[in-house]
Write the structure tokens for this entry.
Amino acid sequence: MPACLAVGQLKDFPGPRVRSDLEERLASAERKAARERAARLEAEAIAEKGLRELYESQQQLLLLQRITHGANQTGDVGEALHLAITEVSQHMGWAFGNALMRADGGGLVGCNIWYAAEPDELFDFVELSRSCRLARGEGLPGRVLTEVGPVWIEDVTVDSNFPRAPVALKCGLRAGCAFPVLVGEEVVAVLEFFSRKRLPQAPGLIAIMAQVGTQIGRVVERDRAQRALVYDALHDGLTGLPNRALFADRLGTAFQRAQAGKPATLALLAIDLDGFKGINDSLGHAAGDELLVETANRIQAAVGAVEAASRAKSPWQSTIARMGGDEFTVLLDDLPDPTIAETVADAIHAALRMDELRPGQTKATASIGVVHGDRRYIDVDQMLRDADLAMYEAKSTGRNRTVTLSETVGSQIRQRLSLEQQLREAIQHREFVLHYQPIVDLGEDGQICGFEALVRWNHPTRGLLPPAEFIDVAEETGLIIFLGDWVLRTACETLAKWHGECRGGSQPYMSINISPRQFLQSDFARRVRAVLLETGADPASVRLEVTESVAILDAARTSLVIEEIRSWGVKTSLDDFGTGYSSLSHLQRLPFDVLKIDQSFVATMSERSESQGIIRAILDLARTMGMGVTAEGIETAEQAKALRQLGCSHGQGFFYGAPLGEGDCLKLLRDGR
Amino acid sequence: MKGVVFNLLAETVSNAHGEEAWDGLLAAAGLDGAYTSLGSYPDEEMSNLVTVAAEVLGISPNDVLRWFGRSAMPLLATRYGVFFEGHQSARSFLFSVNDIIHPEVRKLYAGAGCPHFQFKDGADGRLLIGYQSPRQLCHLAHGFIEGAADHYHETIDVEHLACMQKGSPTCRLALRWVS
């Protein structure tokens, strides 16, 4: 074995004879070796430091990558928070991580999203933290809210602003740090972490956590946008109430549940403001919108009050929706007592009545239709339709009231609706005919001096129907405009024809009824003139009958219209005189040619002396004002005689002749009765 | 094996026997000896060096490893002081090997094959440490344990209950704190 291998004896190894310069060179070589060794160690230290930093930043980037990837994969904020809490805790080797979300009132609340490396050891701290509530500035997470940035606590067990310190101490936790989840400048959540060891602040980690906060913030932002979209799609933008779509959904669910169990626990209210269009038109849309918002608030308050009052006994649910325009609906579900629906309706009426909806404006009222759940309903649409029907009924029967749809009311309404539909078709198919009732001189000879045109509906299945069967519906629905035009034109055509046929003989006049809506048309006079010109009817032989109630609605306008019409020679009659509310002052200003005594006075004149008294008064009045008088509904010779004796000049009725077709009338005229 | 272990060996040998001793050892083992801490070198080079040293010193290779482990500890404490801070005793220091020291080692030396130790309290009050590694360096571990005891001014009596070198599937060390 070579001696040089004896490690322990190397120092004593007898080397070659040493020259001094050789010794010097050896010493130099040793110094050089020592320098190079020192340089190597330093180079290794630098490389190690670089490798360590590279490794750590790679790991942090991987952490961020995992969190970013996870955040991009999910739309669920809770899921993203859980991922971040778990990944960061595991990466850092921290004992506990916990997420807190913003709470109502501006603080933070634990949302049961946490990670613990050893949950059983940290049980008490986890229990305390996972749903804790902290005010702004309070504790570790609360300080993140005020600082809008990371917060570190070197030792939570001795920190003066850490309410959970005793439990942290018990569980062996020492240091804590917390980071914000940001949407813009807003802290939407806080991630807090705890370690059993001292936790030095690391700039690299703070930068990574800022990125993590931003990534989770994006999930929150997406979630918010999604919620806002869904909210907007299901709510009315003006009032914030559920819209038709959401209401239909809620109603559908409630309907199915109720139909499967007790249908009567369900009720539906359809609410419509009275005269809203007028407010919108006269005060503008801004005022209309303001009114709708106030109405929505009041309906909510009213329903809420009834709900609160009766809830203690048995809870029920309500959904209030704006269906569009000034239409609101209320769904009442799980009602212990169906009459609560009417109580709610009353409360809504009262709430709207309470004060002016807008300062300086008249109080708004609403018409409400109520419908109760019933097994006969097959689907929700039927219920909605019936609630609307009831509401329209409330509107058409005086407004500012509630109509509950019973079976009777329902069938009446449906009948009317069906009549309306048939009327539309009748106008299209020209199913109307005119009959003419003679108006005679009540003198000895009973000479025919004119006719009143009366409309009949030649119904395809029900036969000839008198006006009482359909005029009200025509008036309500506005169809009277078309019907009235047709009557005016047809009567004028007939008049012109008769005058042509009876040239040289008696030239009767034609009395034509004008409906309220027709008369209130702004261009009524122009329309009459057009018909006169087109048909060639002699204006002097045309008499337009207007009812008392419409004549006094706007007496000044009525006066102007009638004066214009009279200027062409057309005469005017005030129909149904004595049944309305005309005051003498009104009558004085209205330039009618003829007063028509309502048939109700004529029918009762023999048994009731006051009827005779009224007829006498009307005749006196007419004489004083220089108007002619025609009595309606004369059925007997006695009535005719009595009227004649009272001084009534003209009359009509079955006694003198029932309404006849055009041809029969012409024959009458030719016969020269 | 990582170059840092060769560097430690070079340092312990040089400290104990002088620079020339390390040079002679390399020459005898037929190695050029250019080791840098970040490099990786064949395991055989380490076993060659240990074998040669054992021959020269007239002791067993296991004793060389044990001496090396114990002697290297002060060097490690100087170079990687952060791992020794925060421990009051060799026991807690030993417990931190798996979870703290080895992950840190892997940060620096990508792909380092660190052994995993199992810790168990024995019925007789001794601490049982299980060790399994194809390198079968349980005596180096023994030396490190003694070095750790020195660092915290303790004395630990280490007994090899089982050894892979003797055909056991794992090595098992029993530690008794004498002081």
Remarks:
- DSSP finds six helices and four strands in chain B.
- The beta strands of chain B are 117-121, 127-131, 156-162, 171-177.
- Chain B has a mean pLDDT of 91.
- The radius of gyration of chain B is 16 Å.
